[in-house]
């Protein structure tokens, strides 16, 4: 997809014994990146992943890094949100607030949630504007894109990531930084808001977390080297400009676990 021309780091694969070890490895990456970002740029901007996999990571960050991470210089964003109120059990913000944001001293104005209680189009427009205010505003250079220091992501069995689903209009968006999206029929919450591919590909470090046998198929698809049209899969298209790392457990790694 030539229109995505931007330096992207080769995909690294880290295989851990289980989800607890995946969460520990990811917490170490986040802590390192946070310190580096604040030292280099005076601020750390991270986009949190939704779904269930990162819950243990967020709990670990709150338990182990409440005192030693620069929360006063950290800005938290979200890769996507389900269009439900924050108190809904399906809310990505609600989960992050419960497990992390309510347990660390991050200034409330530095948590940039997606307003899931609003209709998707309106929530997407507001979030797009918030991203633009947070990353340069009117002074942003032409063609600039929101640049997270770290973008945390999960991956679905169909290869979606954030709420960029295969074959979706949202996946083709190149101008806006956040758009409304629709998850496939049968998904828990279909109305979504997601950051777009250019934003994810502008992130400095991109970290995909996956655990469980259910993700083995997509890991094989992405890392197996088969001549499949992998570039159609959102999870295959996302990459950081400086680092792209998948941190997965043995159950998701399948044959790749034995390679270690
Ligand atoms: C969401 C996520 C989505 C998620 C994957 C994996 O809002 O659902 O952003 O992209 O990361 O579906 O979800 P699990 O971690 O629950 O397997």
Features:
260 residues; alpha/beta; six-stranded parallel β-sheet; three-stranded antiparallel β-sheet; 10 helices; 9 strands; 34% helix; 18% strand; binds 6-phosphogluconic acid
Q: Mean pLDDT score, rounded?
A: 94
In terms of DSSP E residues, the strand content is 15-25%
Number of strands: 9
Helicity level: 25-40%
Cross-sheet strand order for the largest sheet: 1-9-8-5-2-3
Note the main sheet. 6 strands, parallel
Radius of gyration: 17 Å
Task: Briefly note the structural class of the backbone.
Answer: alpha/beta
List the total number of helices.
10
Query: How many angstroms does the end-to-end distance come to?
Result: 32 Å
Uncertain residue segments? none
Secondary-structure element order, N to C: EHEHEEHHEHEEHEHHEHH
| Shape descriptor | globular
Ligand identities: 6-phosphogluconic acid
Please, could you describe this protein's structure?
This protein has 260 residues and is α/β, with parallel strands linked by helices. Helices cover 34% and strands 18% of the residues. The strands form two sheets. Strands 1-9-8-5-2-3 form a six-stranded parallel β-sheet. A three-stranded antiparallel β-sheet has the order 4-7-6. Helix 1 (19-41) crosses helix 2 (55-64) and helix 2 runs parallel beside helix 3 (92-101). The model has no long low-confidence stretch (mean pLDDT 94).
């Amino acid at each position: 997809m030539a229109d995505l021309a931007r330096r992207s780091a080769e995909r690294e694969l880290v295989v851990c014994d289980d989800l607890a070890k995946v969460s520990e490895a990811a917490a170490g990456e986040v802590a390192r990146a946070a310190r580096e970002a604040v030292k280099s740029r005076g601020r750390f901007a991270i986009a949190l992943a939704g779904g269930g996999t990162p819950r243990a990571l967020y709990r670990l960050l709150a338990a182990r890094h409440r005192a030693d991470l620069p929360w006063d210089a950290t800005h938290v964003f979200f890769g996507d949100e389900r269009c439900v109120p924050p108190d809904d059990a399906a809310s990505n913000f609600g989960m992050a607030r419960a497990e992390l944001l309510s347990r660390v001293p991050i200034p409330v104005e530095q948590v940039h949630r997606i307003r899931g209680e609003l209709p998707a189009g309106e929530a997407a427009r507001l979030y797009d504007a918030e991203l633009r205010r947070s990353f340069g505003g009117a002074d942003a250079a032409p063609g600039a894109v929101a640049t997270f220091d770290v973008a945390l992501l999960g991956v679905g069995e169909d290869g979606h990531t954030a709420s960029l689903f295969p074959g979706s209009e949202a996946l083709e968006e190149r101008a806006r930084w956040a758009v409304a999206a629709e998850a496939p029929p049968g998904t828990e919450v279909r109305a979504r808001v997601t950051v777009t591919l250019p934003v994810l590909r502008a992130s400095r470090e991109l970290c995909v977390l996956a655990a469980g046998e259910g993700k083995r198929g997509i890991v094989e698809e992405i890392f197996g080297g088969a001549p499949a049209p992998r570039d159609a899969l959102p999870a295959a298209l996302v990459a950081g400009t400086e680092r792209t790392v998948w941190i997965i457990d043995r159950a998701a790694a399948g044959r790749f676990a034995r390679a270690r």
